[in-house]
Design brief:
Order of helices and strands of chain B: HHEHEHEEHEEHEEEHEEHEHHHHHH
Oligomer: heterodimer
CATH architecture of the domain at 35-45 and 77-218 in chain A: 3-Layer(aba) Sandwich
Largest interface: A-B, 28 and 24 residues
Radius of gyration of chain B: 31 Å
Structural class of chain A: alpha/beta
Shape of chain A: globular
Radius of gyration of chain A: 17 Å
Order of helices and strands of chain A: EEEHEEHEHHHEHEHEE
Bound molecules: adenosine-5'-triphosphate, magnesium ion
Helix content of chain A: 25-40%
Number of domains of chain B: 2
Shape of chain B: elongated
Chain lengths: 220, 389
């Protein structure tokens, strides 16, 4: 077993005026390569905050995050950007597709930023998420489920080791939610490590492991 | 997909807003372009005009209107005259190389068309060095030499006789035709000095004398000597190079003012572009967050927004140049009416280099205007941007 992510005493404190919000409070856990993990908990428990830390989108107030055994402490913005490019893929509840770009262009946007040619892998991924017939459509011509599948393909275009998804089925009906879940299972079987924040019990129960947060702490 | 295409598509998201912003840049660039083109045109025009004139100093009768130079250049009837006797005095003045006597008279036909007759003698050759004559200068009584345009209008052939427009019962035998000079000379009818004086009943009189100096740099001395000679009180000595410089100086000072206005317009347009793109950045905060999350670096975001600004300015600049080119004709007509003195040649001279300079200016404007929004966008923290609604 290979430890991919190691969170050690992760703490994130927000200052909201005079009030201090401990969104995360000493969270420690390890994830192995190939894990399929759900992060659950009540609203405001710190799920999104944790996911953002895992995605190198934010830095913890204290504690340390190791990716592939490498510490991310004190990394510069460009080094964090490189981590985001190479190590993780991010999926949002609101899909986050750019309205001016076609399905294909949206998918290959991360490749534009990392200056890679992604034509071939884009075709493969489109096939995998079943959106080949919609490659030249714009997001406003797609359904929610279709948009989310494109967003997942985009998250995978740079071949990351970890997929991070924040309530990916939150804006979808149960049928489309089920389809996304099937897609996650398939990707996980192919070796992808998946961490998904969810309120959806079906999705949560379908994973191998659940991390439950309450007021910024992991419930044992 | 390239950054440029991406930025271009982003630019088109708010078409009206982008267009209005672009129009601001276009107007400013059009103003700048016209101004620069005018500067070139006017300078070249004045220089050519001086070359064509050939004279360094113009001697006109005392009491003549100030625009005697313009009359001598473009042709007109004169209200006052010089005595032939002054010619000798001018010739004898220290520093004068040639003094060519001219008698000019303009006649108007029924429809207001102007025919300008010039009485000249052989001295004119030494002044109008650029003249190319097919045939000969008018020397015999009854000879007539035609400017290129005049000859064309008459369908004149050398050696044949034609009745002279405006002069009833008078005929002239065409002894020569002047090659085109691109100036007013092309419209004139030239005849021996004595003929002109006789026909217009001004024996022994001249309208002006064209003077060339041995050394143009001794202008001040020669002008002083001419003013001091015996007939000095009866003549107006017009140093042409100075005159042209004065006129140009007048035009230059207005141009400076206009230049400042164009520059201010450009700055205002730049601020407009900055503002528009800043607004766009605010609207797209969440998108920028998504891009950052999917691997865009700060410099990627900076580049994208900066490119969008530059595109607005460059496209606006191209539109401005095209508009200025399209409007050059009407602007030229308007300017001609406003200016104290306009050379015969084109006033607006849109050179490729000027066009290029304007586009480079627009691009530079875009580069500067883009700094603030691009910096703002690149500084957005990914999570703040993603959480934004
Ligand atoms: N930028 C911020 N400034 C101040 N407080 C913040 C900020 N971001 C999050 N918080 C607070 O941190 C806590 C955790 O927020 P977080 O978004 O991680 O919760 P969540 O578990 O994802 O909730 P939800 O299920 O509603 O998405 C909340 O109390 C929230 O108000
Ligand atoms: Mg959340």
């Amino acid at each position: 077993m290979q430890t991919l992510v190691s969170a050690q005493e992760l703490t994130k404190v927000y200052n909201r005026g005079v009030e201090e919000v401990r969104a995360l409070d000493g969270v420690t856990f390890d994830l192995q390569k190939g894990d399929f993990v759900a992060i659950t908990g009540a609203s405001g428990a710190g799920k999104t905050t944790l996911l953002h830390l895992l995605g190198c989108m934010d830095i913890p107030t204290s504690g340390e995050l190791l990716m592939n055994g490498q510490s991310t402490r004190g990394l510069s913005d460009s080094a964090l950007t490189r981590m985001r490019r190479e190590q993780v893929g991010f999926v949002f509840q609101h899909f986050g597709l750019l309205p001016t770009l076609t399905v294909m262009e949206n998918m290959t946007l991360p490749a534009l930023f990392s200056k890679r040619d992604a034509k071939e892998s884009a075709k493969e991924l489109l096939e995998k998420v079943g959106m080949t017939h919609r490659r030249n459509h714009r997001p406003n011509q797609l359904s929610g489920g279709e948009m989310q599948r494109v967003a997942i393909a985009r998250a995978l275009i740079n071949c990351p080791q970890i997929l991070l998804a924040d309530e990916p089925t939150g804006n979808l009906d149960s049928v489309n939610g089920e389809a996304i879940l099937q897609l996650f299972h398939q990707l996980n079987r192919d070796g992808l490590t998946i961490i998904v924040v969810t309120h959806n019990p079906t999705l949560a129960n379908a994973t191998q492991r659940q991390l439950v947060l309450r007021d910024g702490r992991l419930v044992p | 997909m390239t950054f440029t295409k991406f930025a271009f598509q982003n630019m088109l998201r708010r078409k009206l807003r982008t267009f209005v912003t672009m129009a601001g840049v276009a107007v400013a660039v059009a103003a700048l372009f016209s101004l620069l083109a005018f500067q070139r045109g006017y300078q070249n025009g004045m220089r050519d005009e001086l070359d064509r004139l050939g004279a360094h100093v113009l001697v006109v009768p005392k009491g003549c209107p100030y625009d005697a130079a313009s009359m001598a250049l473009h042709g007109a009837s004169w209200p006052c005259y010089l005595k032939m006797g002054y010619l000798e005095q001018v010739r004898k003045t220290q520093g004068v190389s040639v003094a060519a006597p001219v008698f000019m008279n303009a006649l108007y036909g029924a429809n207001g068309e102007q025919t300008v007759y010039l009485g000249i003698n052989d001295d004119i050759r030494a002044v109008k060095r650029a003249w190319k004559i097919e045939g000969a200068l008018p020397a015999q009584t009854g000879d007539i030499m035609l400017g290129a345009t005049a000859a064309k209008n008459l369908h004149a052939q050398r050696g044949r006789e034609y009745s002279l427009p405006g002069l009833e019962g008078v005929k002239g035998r065409v002894c020569g035709v002047l090659a085109p000079t691109q100036g007013a000379d092309d419209n004139f009818f030239y005849m021996p000095l004595a003929d002109a004086q006789r026909l217009f009943k001004r024996q022994g009189q001249l309208t002006h004398i064209l003077v060339r100096l041995q050394d143009p740099n001794s202008m001040d001395d020669v002008v002083g000597a001419l003013r001091g000679c015996e007939a000095g009180m009866e003549m107006n000595i017009v140093p042409l190079t100075h005159l042209f410089r004065t006129i140009q100086g007048m035009v230059n000072s207005t141009r400076l003012l206009l230049g400042c206005i164009a520059l201010v317009a450009l700055l205002v347009a730049g601020a407009g572009v900055s503002n528009t793109v800043l607004m766009a950045v605010t609207e797209r905060t969440r998108e920028i967050g998504v891009m950052r999350a999917t691997g865009a670096s700060m410099s990627d975001i900076f580049r994208l927004i900066w490119l969008e600004t530059a595109l607005i300015c460059v496209i606006g600049g191209v539109i401005g140049v095209v508009v200025a080119l399209a409007g050059a004709q009407s602007l030229e007509g308007w300017l001609r009416n406003q200016l104290p003195f306009s050379p015969t040649g084109a006033l607006i001279h849109p050179e490729l280099s000027v066009m290029f300079a304007c586009l480079v200016g627009a691009a530079a404007l875009g580069s500067v205007a883009g700094l603030l929004p691009a910096w703002r966008a690149s500084r957005l923290s990914p999570i703040e941007a993603i959480r934004a609604t």
